[in-house]
Amino acid sequence: MNASKVGKTVLEDQKVNVKTKLSALWASVMFCYVYGDYFGLYGNGKLAEMMEGKIGPLGEATQGVLVGVSAMMAVPSVMVFLSLAMPPVLNRWLNLLLGLAYTAIMLMTMRGAPTFYIFMGVIEVLLTLLIVWHAWTWPRRQTP
What global pTM score does this model have? Predict the structure, then answer.
């Protein structure tokens, strides 16, 4: 035994389940969405635009537009829970598809955006690509 290691302790490092990782990644994505949109309210003319009933590039804030945007934001929110609760095969495929879809959505909305939004967008893209990676590399075990 090496005398220099006697009495030393190391930090415990437990393996994190893939479902927990996916759930945490979706939660992180949602925090970035919320903060990016919140900081966007501080842009010049943004509140005036909102008071005129407009939602940026989507135009007039009709009930249809609001439901569409709500649905788009509800999916990642619900994936925080579903990533923990769904059976593995469905979980893997939904995380693959939705991770890619939300990566694409973010890439499309970053064009011409302010610097802070691009910064948040890059983080969101990295997080959604991590979701895809973890779903794609989901550990397998031999069936009995």
Answer: 0.86
